[in-house]
User: Fold this.
Amino acid sequence: MKKSLSEKIFQVFDIMLMVFIMSTIILPIMNIISVSFSSTKAVNTNSVGLFPIGFQTVAYKKILTDSVFLRSLINTVFVTSVGTLLSVIVITLAAYGLSKRFYGKKTITYFFIVTMYFSGGLIPTYLLVSKYLNMRDTLLAYMLPYLVNVFYLIVLRSQIESLPPSLMESAHIDGANEYQTLFMIVLPLLAPTIAAVSMFIALNKWNMWFPVLLYSSKNETWTLQYFLRAMVFDKVLAAMSNPEYNADPSDMTSPLNFQNASIVLVAAPIVMIYPFVQKYFVKGIITGAVKG
Assistant:
């Protein structure tokens, strides 16, 4: 079918707009990667553009052998994996329970929904976690207070309610209990949604830094994002950039090398995983949100 002049103009404009948006994303990333691999002289003179100048990997070597970074990496992997698993389990069980008919269901549902708009406040939360639950300077402070996301709970509950009731009824007739029905009938049907929810939760866990600022007083409980924040605010650069830290005093590296190398190392794992799970995002969330 032949396109009209207005359609051709719109298509050209659409392509130009997409190219511009992609450029605003790709070009800064290329500059960050280039600076992280460039020589100190090129970085200090602002000579680095989209490609490295004076290629070197000193910043990566120092960061990857730094005890604070390695500890932060272990903490982040633990919080992301364990925290995501616990969140998905709790949210799925709660969603399955709320999909059933029982006395007081609306009241309990509204109780959950209210927490989406109102919280106890920063100071009461801090006192609860650090003083009464005694979780300060522990990784539990980054997981337990953020265990349930009500939005994802509602999404899963809505999709469970949209499933044909005959599936659950036939399972019960065959002698299956609620747990068998959930894990053998419901969960396989919710796989795309659970995959999408899991990835969103994992992203939040991986990018976590503010709870570290609140509940951590020592670098043994830092996460990667807080390590990156420390790099930006020169809390770690002082150790990495001075001659006493370096085995060779002449091997001085610009703080910008460390900062940009840290950005690359912190973002790389999620960037590599994202393409493999993004297909579940739209399918899972939209499917679960069809029925309100």
Summary: Residues 243-251, 285-292 have pLDDT under 50 and may be disordered. The two ends are 40 Å apart (CA to CA). Residues 5-37 form the longest helix (33 residues). The chain has one domain: 59-288.
